Structure formats: structure tokens, C-alpha cells
Amino acid sequence: QSTVPLPGTTRVFTISNQKGGVGKTTTTVNIAAALAKSGARVLVIDLDPQGNASTALGVDHHAEIPSVYDVLIDEFPLAEVIQKSPEFDTLFCAPSTIHLAGAEIELVSQVAREHRLRTALEQFIADAEDPFHYVFIDCPPSLGLLTINAFVAAKEVLIPIQAEYYALEGLSQLLNSIQLIQKHLNPPLRLSTILLTMFDGRTNLAHQVADDVRAHFPVEVLNTVIPRAVRISEAPSFGQTVITHDPSGVGSISYLEAAAEIAARHAKSAKTHSNTATLTE
Ligand code: ADP
Ligand code: MG
Predict the structure, then answer these.
(1) Whose CA is nearest to atom 9 of ligand 1?
(2) Cross-sheet strand order for the sheet of 156-162
């Protein structure tokens, strides 16, 4: 039983922002855990050599573990590297290992170097006995080949924006990159979701930044904002997401609400689209 509407086909998100420390990994693992807790089957692909998402999901990722590196470079099936997270029965992770740091260079000389993750993911989705509802790809803070692989494999982009000064700076570069990917590699890709993170409601600046971002992206920004909260930042040191670390705290509640919004908005637009289709037939 799910407490959120489940999509009919797998929704594949890349969580991107070429700035480091804006909450990409935190958002990836907590939205994923929130959706898994709500009854969805969810896969997180850790594409950051740092492996922070793997750590937060309590998944082994020492150097000898089969990882996304083997998928990208040696064409291992994704199914062979995926581990179940101890967090929830429907939450899975394709871990990153330190080897992934070299993949950025090794990919340069590979055939179909931008499409490697997409090919592996399509195969995995087609073969999965129990279908996955969501895939979230956590990207490193750069626009190299790993991030490009994520953009090509995804259908939707989720941008976490830190509600602080300079929030919008660098965003136009990210939007340009998305446009280039749409044009040359993955036309259906769309920026579907923006989430304001590390929001400190006591400062005027945070409200100003939030208003600014909403003015630029009235449709994409979720109503829910993620507050700055110690429980959110300490959860990974317990090998947990905040959803299990502090289930009734503000961090957990805000990520559950953001996840519910992501699910509900899609269900609503899917309905609108199918209505439109019937009307014009
Ligand atoms: P990125 O993946 O973009 O580099 P992270 O998700 O690792 O960013 O977050 C950067 C730092 O900020 C981490 O130490 C993380 O624990 C902390 N952090 C993220 N979101 C919050 C939040 N809402 N409240 C407090 N700390 C946060
Ligand atoms: Mg990160």
C-alpha cells in the first residue's frame, strides 16, 4: 500500500547543480527514502566518487565492492551491483567506489561514452521483475562525463538550491548545459523540479532568495522548503537518512512533504495530459 500516487512508468531524475555543498546528496537520499517509506520502489545511483549517497543509505562501498564504475567501464549489468539499503525494503542503491574518480578520464576513450549509464539503466528497467517507480542519480559537483551520463540517462532534472546569497549564480550555466543535452543527446529531458534547501526562515535573505527563485521558476519550485536542521546533517554519520534517523523531526517531515509533492504533481499532470489527449482525439 502506497500513501503517494505511483507513476505508471519509471521516473528517472538526475539531481544536479555544479556547485558543491548545496544539498544534492542530502536531497537525493532523503527524497528517495521518503518515497520508499511511502510505498514506492526506489533506486539511487551514486555517481559521485565521494560515495556520500552510498554512506547515507548504509550501503557497502569499499574499493572491492562491485559498483557503478564496473557498470560504466566494464559493462556490468546494473542488477549485479545494486544493494538493498537497510533503511527500507523497497530502497536500493548502486554504490560508488573510489574507482569512479578515474572513470571521468577512462570514459573519454570509450565507445558511446555519454550513453553508458542510459544503456545500463534501460536494460535494468526492462528486466526488473518488480518494476521501479523512481530512480535518482546523485551527481558529482562538475559538468564532466559522469554528470553528462546522468543527464542522458534521466528524464527529469531536480535542482536543489541553497537558500543563500549567490543562489542563482551559476544557475544559467546549468540551464545552458541542460539545453545542450536536450539538443544533442536527450531531447525529452526536462527541468521538472526545484527544491529550496537549508532554508533559515529567521533571515530576510532566505525569504528574498526564495522569492527570487520562485519568480524565475514559478512552476518548478516545490511549495515545501527544506529547513536547515542539525538532524539532517548528522544522519549520514549514523549511516542513515533523516527519514529513519529522526522520523518525526522537521527534517524528516519536510522531505516527506517534498516527496509527496513530487509524486502528486506528476499524477496531476499525467491526468491532465490524458484528458487533453481524449479531448483532441
Ligand atoms: P552536495 O551533495 O551538493 O555537495 P550535501 O548534500 O553533501 O551537498 O550537503 C552539504 C553539507 O550540508 C553536508 O554536510 C550536509 O550534511 C549539509 N546539509 C545539507 N542539507 C542540510 C540541511 N537541510 N540542514 C543542515 N545541513 C544540511
Ligand atoms: Mg554530493
Answers:
(1) 23
(2) 83-84, 91-94, 42-46, 134-138, 11-15, 156-162, 190-197
Residues with CB under 5 A from ligand 2 (ion): 24-25, 52
- The domains of the chain, with CATH numbers, are 11-280 (3.40.50.300)
pTM of the complete model beyond 0.90: yes
Q: Cα of 26 to ligand 1 centre, how many Å?
A: 6
Q: Which ligand approaches the C-alpha of residue 251 most closely?
A: 1
How far is residue 140's CA from residue 127's CA, in Å, rounded to a whole number?
Answer: 28
For the chain, the distance separating the N- and C-terminal CA atoms, rounded to the nearest angstrom, is 34
Compute CA 123 distance to the chain's CA centroid, rounded to the nearest angstrom.
20
| pLDDT tier for residue 274 given thresholds of 50, 70 and 90 | low
Say if residues 116 and 72 touch (Cβ distance below 8 Å): yes
Instruction: Calculate the alpha carbon distances from 249 to 3, 227, 232, 239 in Å.
Output: 19, 11, 9, 17
What number of other Cβ atoms are within 10 A of residue 21's Cβ? 11
> For ligand 1, is residue 229 a contact (CB within 6 Å)?
yes
52-72 pLDDT, tens digit per residue, is 999 999 999 999 999 999 999
Q: Label residue 164 by pLDDT band (50, 70, 90).
A: confident
